[in-house]
Amino acid sequence: MTDTTEGSLMVSTPKPHSVGGNAAAAGTGTQAISRTLAVLTLFRESEGDLGISDIAKSLTLSVSTVHRIVRALVDEGYLSQDLATERYTLGRSAMLLGEAANRRLGLDRAKTVVERLRDELGESVNLGVRDAGEMVVVISAESKQLLRFSQAPGNRLPVHATAMGKAMLSHSARSVEDEVAALDMPLRRLTRKTITSPTTLCRELTLIRRRGYSIDDQEAIEGVRCVAVPILSPEGDLLAAMGVQGPAVRMTDEKLKRAVRPLRSAAQEVAHLLPPRPL
């Protein structure tokens, strides 16, 4: 681990997928909308700028189709073009839409809580949500220490390998057995400590459900340990998860356990700021 280990090391590359072959949508406005949203999603998941050919290849669309979609998005301010390189990035309208979503979902206020917890514990803190078999970072507050581990919003990791993911799996309305059975098999190994046995994962989730917090002991990233708790609405619905992470050399068993109480308190506070439904 270098002095600063950035979460960009863990960003999953958007998988190429086709959005042009839906017969039911062919020739309709639905197809055009689907393709436009796919283009925006590609930019959301990309770390850098994209060219027309990049988009066409990733979405298996023709260059001419992509060009029409991109031009319309540029005209509306959702994409911006660098005239020197002729490549594109998200534009002002996309930024304003994201800011509006943050306000309406309570994420701007939740970020204040996340940052306060970061300052209290001295380690990086994330708030994440589940997207099928992955956990996605929504809010991140990076530790101010020189040796730290951080993840940017949008970073993804398999749900079974992270503390936040296991916190959500264990507190689902479904049984842990049903949750594990619904995951893609075989469970992907990220480090030598990743749990890849469904039986072992079920036992781990049962323990987490009983004690109320989960630990990632270098299961997702070598040299990084995390502790996380679920974020439950006042009615008990599972909304998200919050975790504290740092270098294993600092995140001792004692420090992980000490973090649980302030982590739970912050999660309860955030639960009253978020909509009463999963993000």
TrEMBL record:
A GO BP entry: glycerol metabolic process
SUPFAM superfamilies: GAF domain-like, Winged helix' DNA-binding domain
MF term (GO), any: DNA binding
Domain HTH iclR-type: 30-92
SMART domains: HTH_ICLR (SM00346)
Pfam families membership: HTH_IclR, IclR_C
Annotated region described as Disordered, given as residue ranges: 1-26
Compositional bias ranges of the Polar residues kind: 1-11
Keywords: DNA-binding, Glycerol metabolism, Transcription, Transcription regulation
Function: May be an activator protein for the gylABX operon.
Protein name: Glycerol operon regulatory protein
